[in-house]
Amino acid sequence: MRIQIELPRELRLLIKKPFGKLYAGNGSDTIEKFVGELASSTKLISVGDVTTFHLLEAGIFPDICIVDNRTKRKPVARHVSTRNMDSVYEEVSVENPAGIITDELIKTLCEAFTSEKPIRIFVKGEEDLATLPVILLAPLGAVVLYGQPDEGVVFVKVTEEKKREIRTLFEKLISENQNYELDKIRRILDGHKDP
Q1: Long-range contacts of 60-65 (CB under 8 A, 24+ apart)
Q2: What is the pLDDT of residues 31-69, one digit of tens each?
Q3: Phi and psi for 127 in degrees, rounded to 5?
Q4: What is the pTM of this model?
Q5: Which residue would you say has higher pLDDT here, 178 or 12?
Q6: Are 140 and 191 in contact (CB under 8 A)?
Q7: Is 1 within the bounds of a domain?
Q8: Which of 20, 15, 160 is nearest to 101 (CA)?
Q9: Which of 64-78, 94-108, 152-166 is modeled with the greatest confidence?
Q10: Residue 102's domain spans which residues?
Q11: What is the pLDDT of residue 195?
Q12: 26 assigned to some structural domain
């Protein structure tokens, strides 16, 4: 049985605000603004097709990239999806509907973080909310990059403080869903294997 957390309407505004520093712009000019800060990251994770595309075009290969072949709920251009299928990546597919975070997505992320190989997670559905569990599961010092539609790229440095902030938001999501099965997701996010 799939366990999932649904994003309630009243929390959607919280998700829209950037979780890190917003670098305004579009394309390679945005990447140039923060490229110097990437060298010290313990892991680099990109969430979103356009962000991933521009990183790869700049010769920057995230350890994990999460894509769904869509941007702003429309299919991405063929050259974007083709570039994002770089042969350096081992691909894993996962089902994750729009406005939802599934236990399948979280388990796939756990596996990706322990992999020695670069992983591309292809989401059948929508990857927008993946940023939340990514920040919680990423090692300290990791950098998470994701697109802020029509604004630029959000740069998140994973710190204890950032994990606490996201965990508080996650707890709001879990309490809004009121399902005892969500304790399994909570345990996975805390680093325990699924029972």
Answers
A1: 60/31, 60/35, 61/86, 61/88, 61/118, 62/118, 62/145, 63/118, 63/119, 64/109, 64/112, 64/113, 64/118, 64/119, 64/120, 64/121, 64/134, 65/89, 65/118, 65/119, 65/120, 65/121
A2: 999 999 998 899 999 999 999 999 999 999 999 999 998
A3: -105, 5
A4: 0.88
A5: 12
A6: no
A7: no
A8: 15
A9: 152-166
A10: 19-189
A11: 44
A12: yes
State the residue for tokens 């990857």.
127
Tokens of 173: 């999501």
Q: Cβ atoms within 10 A of the Cβ of 119, count?
A: 22
State the residue for tokens 């939340």: 132
How many domains, the chain? 1
Q: How far is CA 112 from the centre of its chain?
A: 12
Amino acid at position 191, single letter = G
Residue 62, in any domain of the structure: yes
Strands (E) located in the chain: 4-6, 21-24, 44-47, 64-67, 70-71, 74-75, 90-96, 100-102, 119-125, 143-148, 152-157
Question: Which one-letter DSSP state was computed for residue 37?
Answer: G
Place of tokens 């702003």: 72
d(CA 80, CA 92) in angstroms, rounded, equals: 18
Rounded to a whole number of angstroms, the distance between the first and last alpha carbons of the chain is 14
